[in-house]
Structures are given as C-alpha cells and as structure tokens.
Amino acid sequence: MAVTVQPVSQQETAEKASKKLGAPQNKLVTGGLIVFAILTLYLALTQSIVQPLLLTIGLLLGYTLFHARFGFTSAFRRLMSVGNGQALRAHMVMLAAAVTLFAPILALGSTFFGGDVSGYVSPVGVSVVVGSFMFGIGMQLGGGCASGTLYAVGGGRTNMFITLLFFIVGSTVGAYHLSFWTDDTPSFGSISLATSTGLGYTGAWIVSLLIFAAVIAVTLIIDKKKNPPAMATLPTASGWKRIFRGSWPMMIAAVVLAVLNALTLLTRGQPWGITSAFALWGSKAAEAVGINVSSWDYWSGESAQALQTTIFADSTTVLNFGVILGAFIASAVGGLFKFTKVTVGNASASIIGGLLMGYGARLAFGCNIGAYFGGIASFSVHGYVWAVFALAGTFLALFLRPLFGLSVPKPKDTFC
Q: Which residue ranges run through the membrane (predicted)?
C-alpha cells in the first residue's frame, strides 16, 4: 500500500532548526568587531593597503566557513565511510566557480594594484604523495583541516587550540626537513594544465570542468548504490535573518568561497593559503629560543625577509587572523560560541593530528586550501594528486579514530 508523506516546507524546517540557536552573544560580537576595527586601523597605519583588505577578506572567509560548516575533513570522511558525496559535490561546485574566475585573472596576470599574479603550481613528486597522505590522516585525527582548525578555534572548540598549536610545530619541523623532500626524492616537476600542456587557460578550464563533472557523476553513482544517510539539518534562522544567524546552503557557501579566493588572488597576487603562516610563526618562536632558523634552506632567498619583519607584514598571517575573527563573530551572532570539553582521547588525537597536518602540508606544498583548493583553481596537477592521497589517508584514519574515542559515521547514522 502506498504511503503519502506530507512535504515539509523550507520555512517550517528553518523554524524548527532555529530553535537550536541561542540568543545573540552581543558582548562577544561587539568585542570581536572592536578587535577587527583596531587591527584594521593598525594595519592601515603600519602596512600597505593590501593588509587591511586581506583582513576583511579573511573575516568574510571565516564567517562563510562557520555559517555553512563548510568542511573538507568531514566531506572526505563522509565519502569514505558511508558513501555520502553531498559535501564533495559542493567542493566541485566551489572548484568550478574558482577555475572560472581564476582563468582570466591568471591569463591577464595583474592584481588590483598592478602587481604580478601567480597561482599555486607546485611539483608533483614523492613529497606531495607522502605529505597529502599524512595530512589526510592528520585532519581526521585532529578534528579539522587547516581552514577547519581556524574556524573551529574561532567558534571556541577547545581541543582545536591543541590541534593548532601542534599544527604549527609540525609545520615548523616540516620547513626544516623540506630540502630533503624536494632535493632528494623523485619529482616530475611542476605541471600546469594551462601552461605545461599547450591547452592554454581556456582549454584547461574546459578540462577542469569535465573532471569536476566526472567526480560529481561518480559520487551520485555511489550515493545511489549505498543509499547513505542524509546530512543533519544545522541550526538556522528563517528569511533574511539567515544571512546573519544560522546555516547557509552549502552550494551558496561554495560559490562565496570561490569568489573570496579570487578576490584574494586579485588583492595580493596569490590565492588563499593558510599553513605557510604556521611555519613562519613556529620558526620565529624557534628563533626566539636560540635556534638558527635562518640557516634552513626553507628561509633562504626572498623568504628570508619574513623572519626579519613583523608577522603583520605576512599576508597569509593576516588572512588567518581574519578567518578566526570571522568565525568568532559568526558563532557569537548565532549564540553558539562556547568552549568545549577536552578529554585525554581527543587531546591525544589533536596532538598527533596537528603534527601530521603541519608536517604533511609543508611536504605537499600546501593544505586543503593551498594545495587542494588553490592548486586545482590554479590548474596545477599537484592539487589533484593531493586530493587522491588525502582521501587515501582519510580511509586509513577511519580505522585509527576509534583508538582515540573518536566516532566514525555508520551506514544508518544521520550526521552533519
């Protein structure tokens, strides 16, 4: 006998989810805005106009990441554990929008301010394979990827402060060891779909879109075969209030992130990145305790100047501060900022995960943002290699997570 199911309107769903939102934490929102204003003024007075602009872009990135809970770690875990490809399809939409915006920018080669533009095109070799595999394991243990770590810190997840600390440590050690991985292991060199193949940016754009479409088709086939659980509804408000309080549709967030990454490229001449700042912070700390960091190959040449100047002169650092502030304000507006409980299990996982991600990101020439998002958007083959081996690392991590008391989605679970 057929059963008729009464459909639930989007308005009713939003109203039901909005009950999970807390009252706006106005004091925290005000505090976050004051910090943002002070930092913007300081950057405007002491640095070039680029830095306050990047702080604003970073804030918008953090705001978007938190509102959509736009994850890379969870997207990979959902696919590998139960076959849910919904979040990965959002990644493909994000990447499709990004390559569409990046292609003309890279072809023209100029920023808003007349500077040179360059994408993230890095070598394809053993270092990327090992580094991305380590990163895939690390992000599943650490509780978040590079962007996820920053926006979770902004939202008050206490264990992510531990992840961030050891992310910095791992990235610093990776910087120290990087010359071995780049000089003494096999590599095919940098390969760009646009400039290394004769396709040009138009041809590379078409090929990229075909790859994204193929990934979407494969995930839909997997979805149909495995019939995975749906993603849980996140707390949200209804109507125009949803812009400020509650979750954003994942596909909308995907396009917004692509636009903001393109704005980053046009502002500073490079795409959005995160983890190079971690290596800088850690190296400055190491230098402060007497370690001769300037002797490392990683800090030779043009990069040596970063050690001699304030971290606020580093554009990636400014972006990172903006992401944390944006996530903090977004969580407070939704009444969701709170410090969480830390257990021995998740603290241990955060330490190991942070170390693996930090070290892996240096070997792989970036993280889920710099290598995966920025690399693929820049038409670099190393971005695709990163994705494949980060997925492999995720699969292995599914067997490691229970050792630390961390859950793994099961076929009958509904999860977010």
A: 28-45, 51-72, 93-113, 133-153, 160-179, 199-222, 243-263, 318-337, 349-372, 384-404
What's the residue count for the chain?
A: 416
Distance CA 367, CA 273 (A): 8
Contact in structure between 167 and 388 (CB atoms under 8 Å): no
Over residues 270-296, the mean pLDDT reads 96
Buried b (16+ CB within 10 A) or exposed e, 400-410: bbeebebebbe
Closest CA to 357 of 371, 345, 346: 371
CB 144 within 8 A of CB 327: no
Q: How confident is the model at residue 407 (pLDDT cuts 50, 70, 90)?
A: confident
Distance separating alpha carbons of residues 393 and 135, to the nearest angstrom: 7
pTM of the entire structure? 0.91
Residue 141 has pLDDT above 50, yes or no: yes
At residue 116, what are phi and psi to the nearest 5 degrees?
-75, 150
Q: What is the mean pLDDT of residues 296-322?
A: 93
pLDDT in tens, 97-129: 999 999 999 999 988 888 999 999 999 999 999
Report the C-alpha gap between 401 and 413 in whole angstroms: 17
Cβ atoms < 10 Å from Cβ of 195: 16
**Phi, psi for residue 408 in degrees, rounded to 5:** -130, 125
Residue 183 has pLDDT above 60, yes or no: yes
Cα–Cα distance measured from residue 167 to residue 146, given in angstroms and rounded to the nearest whole number: 9
Separation CA 39–CA 56 (nearest Å)? 10
